[in-house]
Amino acid sequence: MMMRRVAPPASASEGAGDGVGGGSAPLPGWLETLLSTRFFLACGAHPASPRNECNMFCLDCPSSPAFCYYCRSHRHQSHRVIQIRRSSYHDVVRVTEVEDVLDISGVQTYVINSAKVLFLNERPQPRGAGAAAGKAAASPYNCEICARALLDPFRFCSLGCKLVETKTSGRRGATAAAGGEVVVGGNEEAGGPSKSVAGARPQGRRRKGIPQRAPFGS
Ligand SMILES: [Zn+2]
Ligand SMILES: [Zn+2]
Ligand SMILES: [Zn+2]
Fold first, then answer.
1. Of 193 and 52, more confident
2. Strands (E), 53-104
3. Where is the composition biased (Low complexity) (predicted)?
4. pTM surpassing 0.70?
């Protein structure tokens, strides 16, 4: 069975590449839903069936929750469905299942069970920012958002981190255009200058004994 992508005619004029070019192609609306969906729960509609874990997501019904193998054959038979898999308790998706519907450029791929996969979301890192910074130093490549060390020269560790970047840069553009104050604040600090923050954050750790005393006057 062939899956054909229907490309909007407008994008055809942009270059010879097959939709791969350009760093900041807009990500599809269903991506955010996909990333916030909880997978691998037992399907309420098929509680007694052996393959009832909800590990499917339908691109044509993004508002429907994750569903199982049986639900797929009942309700999403001719839809574009992607299957979520697990690696060490983290959700991954095969590159071959999303590369035609999603711009995955910049996202680190991993080979798991001889298939190339992407992680859906950022994985929590042991011992917080300090450890991350230490780890980061060991690798020449780091996720631009969460600073996780990467194996190869990619920009993001996961689709989730790519989405964060896309959203903040989009918002930055929007606020700049509106001429208003930049309200990006929190996200900027968390995601932005990860390298310099690592060195400049010693006071964050020692809030144990001294409550609420600002070390520097402002
Ligand atoms: Zn089901
Ligand atoms: Zn569907
Ligand atoms: Zn990341």
1. 52
2. 56-58, 81-87, 90-94
3. 174-192
4. no
Ligand 3 centroid – CA 29 distance (Å):
20
**pLDDT at position 197, please?**
41
- Take residue 2 and report the two structure tokens written for it: 């062939």
Ligand 3 center–CA 169 separation, angstroms: 16
Q: What is the mean pLDDT of the chain?
A: 77
Place of tokens 């839903």: 33
Rounded Cα distance, 160 and 177, in Å: 26
Q: Who surrounds ion ligand 3 at CB < 5 A? A: 122, 143, 145-146, 148, 157, 161
Cα–Cα distance for residue pair 157/145, rounded to 1 Å? 8
For the stretch 47-103, pLDDT in tens is 999 999 999 999 999 888 999 999 999 999 999 999 999 999 999 999 999 999 999
Distance of CA 148 from the midpoint of ligand 3 (Å) = 6
